[in-house]
Amino acid sequence: MRLTHWIAKIISLLFHPLFMVSYMLIILLMTNPQLFGYSRWNQSPSLILLVFISTVVIPGIAISMMRPLGFIQSLQMQDKKERIIPLIVILIFYLWLFINFYNNKNIPLPLTTVMLGVIIGLFFTFFITIFSKISIHTVGVGGLVGMLILLRLFYSYDFFIWPNAAGTMVPTDLLIVIGIVIAGMVGTSRLLLDAHRPGEVWGGYIIGIASMFIAQVILH
Question: What is the pTM of this model?
Answer without folding.
Answer: 0.90
